[in-house]
Amino acid sequence: MSYVTYDILHGTCVPAPAPVTALTAGSAAQLASHATAPTAMQPAWPVADAHNDLLMLVQHFAADRDYFRRAWLPQLRAGQVGIQVLPVFVDESWLPGLALRQTLALIETALRTVESCADDLALCLEPGDVEQALADGRIAVVLALEGCPAVGPDTDLLRTLSRLGVRMASLTHFGRNFLADGSAEDGTDGRLTRAGVSAVKVMQETGMLVDVSHLSLAGTRHVLDITRAPVLATHSSCRALHEHHRNLPDAELRAIAATGGVVGINFFPAFLSPGPGTIDLVLDHIEHAVGQAGIEHVGLGPDFTKEIASTMYAGSHVMEGIDLAAAVPGLEGPADLPVLAGRLAARGFSPADVAAVLGGNLRRLLNSSIGGGAVPGGGAVPGGGP
Ligand SMILES: [Zn+2]
Question: How far is the CA of 25 from the centre of ligand 1 (A)?
Answer without folding.
Answer: 33
